[in-house]
Write a structure and sequence with these properties.
Elements lengths: L2 H26 L4 H8 L3 H8 L7 H11 L37 E4 L2 E5 L10 E7 L14 E8 L2 E5 L2 E5 L4 E5 L4 E4 L6 E7 L5
Antiparallel strand pairs: 1-2, 2-3, 3-9, 4-7, 4-9, 5-6, 5-8
Length: 205
């Protein structure tokens, strides 16, 4: 099986799980779709499609949903959600992290995108560096704005990055840096997996 096929297949499974978790957490709080949409600044129709597994949701938009539901983002990817344990006081240095290649980086799959975390958690650090693999095709996420900044550098393949309604096609070596409160979305309209180094603030996990 080609990598692109595997990413799409895995993405289908994760997409259903993320939607199911969203519905579960929403109902636990007695929230309607309208209430969640208002809190997360997303449309009712889009959230309905995500919950039914029809549409995928980008990680930054999911972060807004997670904040609205007062849940860690990681719980949307877990078969058995559990409260996230806090690190013991002083167990991590406050000024840096050192992540070795053989540490086994955490990966999350959301729709067409697989996110590989490039840095261990640092208690006083705000950047979220990731290696993102974006499968071809699929539905475009809804354009979304959020607090912070976002940087993307294309390593392999091509990427359509829409910022404030204007599409920009990025090729290997191209990069884009924006204030994330501007509505934006990205999409791979080619036949191959696109690989991007992405750095966002604030941290999502």
């Amino acid at each position: 099986m080609r990598r692109s096929d595997r990413v799409v297949a895995d993405g289908d499974v994760r997409q259903d799980l993320v939607g199911a978790r969203m519905r579960q957490f929403r109902k636990e709080q007695g929230l309607t779709l309208r209430g969640l949409a208002s809190r997360a600044n997303l449309s009712i129709g889009f959230l309905s499609q995500v919950e039914r597994g029809v549409s995928s949701i980008g990680l930054t938009a999911l972060n807004g949903v997670a904040a609205a539901l007062d849940r860690p983002v990681a719980e949307f990817f877990s078969e058995e959600p559990a409260a996230t344990a806090e690190d013991p006081q002083g167990s991590l240095p406050v000024h840096f992290t050192l992540t070795r290649a053989d540490n086994g980086a955490t990966e999350y799959v959301s729709g067409q995108q697989t996110y590989r975390m490039l840095s261990d958690r640092g208690p006083n650090l705000v950047l979220e560096p990731m290696l993102v693999h974006i499968a071809p095709g699929g539905r475009r996420d809804e354009a979304y704005g959020h607090a912070g900044e976002e940087f993307a550098y294309v390593v392999r393949g091509e990427l359509l990055y829409e910022v404030d309604g204007v599409e920009h096609r990025l090729h290997p070596g191209d990069s884009l840096h924006l204030r994330s409160n501007t509505p934006h979305r990205l999409y791979n309209d080619t036949d191959e997996v696109t690989t991007v180094v992405s750095v966002v603030t604030p941290r999502l996990f």
